[in-house]
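Sanity check. The docking grid for zinc ion depends on where the pocket ends up, so I'm generating a full predicted complex first rather than guessing from homology. Inputs follow.
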Amino acid sequence: MPEKLTVLAATAHPDDVEVLCAGTLIRYVKEGHKVYIAIACTGNVGSKLHTGLEIEAIRAVEAQRGADVIGAELIMLGYRDGEVWQNNPTWKTYVDLIRRTNPDVIITLDRDDYVHDHSNVGELAYRAAIWASVANIPDTQYPPIDHIPTVFRAETVWMTRVAPPDYYVDITEEFEQKLEACRQHESQYSDFVKKQFGIDDWFEYMTVVSKLRGFQCGCKYAEAFRVEQTWPNHKPYRLLPPVQVNAHSAAPAGSNL
Ligand SMILES: [Zn+2]
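Predicted complex below; grid placement will be based on this.
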C-alpha cells in the first residue's frame, strides 16, 4: 500500500461531491493524495431557467470550479440526467474509469439514494471495483489494475435514509472551503434547488448535516461514510483522512478520527 493514495469520488451530478464529501476530499488533497472527481451526468435537467444545452454548459463550468476549489482532477462521463442505468456498456465505462484512475479508495453514492442516477452510480462503481483488476473483459480500453480498491459510501443526499456511519472525517478546518466549493454551483442554490425542492438555504442544510455528524464524533463539523462490507474492503489501517497506511503508526481499524 503506497503512503500517498489515489482517491476516486464517483458521483452522479455536478454538485453531489461538494454536498457529500468535499471536506474529506480537501483533507486528502492537503495530505498530498491524488483526488479524481468523476461525474456521470451533465446536469442538463437542473434548471428552471435554461434549456438543457444551456444549463449543462453552465454546470460544466461550475463543476470545474468546484473541483478547482477542492484541488481535484475532474472527469465528466457525459451521461444525461436520468439516463444512468445498470447495464453492460455502462458497467464497462466504470471498469475503464477505475482502470484509468487506478484508485486505492473509491468514494461513491449509497445504493438507497432517492434518485436512480445516484443509486445506479453507486452500484456501478461498486460492481466495477473488483472487476477492474480482472483481465480479458471484452470492449474495455484500459489494462487491469493490480489491486482492488476499497469502496466507501457517502451519505444519501438530503439524508433521506440515515444509516449509522462506520467512519467519520473531521472537516472542521475544511468546512469553509467545502462551502466555497458549493458556492461555485450558483445555478443550483440560486435557482434549481430552491424552485424544485423548496429549499431556501442550501448552505444551512449542509451546515446542519455536518454539525450533526460532528456532534456524533466529537468535533465541530464532520462527514460520515460507510464501508462496503465485502472482501477485501476492510483494511487493518485507516484509508480515510487522516490516512494512516503505515502499519506501525496505524490507528485501530474502527478508529474514526
Ligand atoms: Zn445528484
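Relevant for the grid: The two ends are 20 Å apart (CA to CA).
Also worth noting: Helices lie at 16-20, 22-30, 52-70, 88-101, 116-129, 175-183, 186-197, 202-217.
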